[in-house]
Design goal:
434 Repressor (Amino-terminal Domain); 0% strand
Length: 141
């Protein structure tokens, strides 16, 4: 009885959690007009593994999952169905800075200086928030 219950639990967990991944992977692959074999070659795995991933019979390791995300230029969270936003936050921020500040027209040195200045401003804001939080905590005593 326990074995049957455990098997059903594992099956439902796999289909529920990783069922989204399998559908998303297949959709991304088909939208890019590539075969399972082509994707497998890029990932350095067999096309049988891709078939298993797309049917939900197996789940990829974390390193393969990251390679898949990089290949399709999406976040791992998107692949797992945890968000509908395809790009990672880091990529979105990077693209925003590159387009908003028109960094392409700056010299490489100026681009680095601008990045350092932005990091400096972030640290300044963080220190201010920490100071404000400490001041609030001191008044609660």
């Amino acid at each position: 009885m326990f074995c049957l219950f455990y098997s059903l639990l594992c099956y439902n967990f796999k289909k529920g959690v990783f069922g989204m991944f399998s559908g998303i992977l297949k959709e991304l692959r088909e939208n890019k007009n590539i075969t399972q074999k082509e994707l497998a070659k890029y990932l350095n795995i067999t096309d049988r593994n891709i078939r298993y991933y797309e049917t939900g019979d197996r789940i990829p390791s974390t390193d393969i999952l990251e390679k898949i995300a990089d290949y399709f230029d999406v976040s791992v969270d998107y692949l797992l169905g945890r968000t509908s936003v395809k790009k990672s936050v880091e990529k979105a921020i990077k693209e925003y800075y590159e387009t908003s500040f028109d960094m392409k027209n700056l010299s490489p040195e100026s681009q680095e200086d601008l990045k350092k200045y932005i990091e400096l401003l972030k640290m300044k804001d963080l220190l201010k928030r920490n100071k404000d939080n400490n001041d609030e905590l001191a008044t609660l005593d």
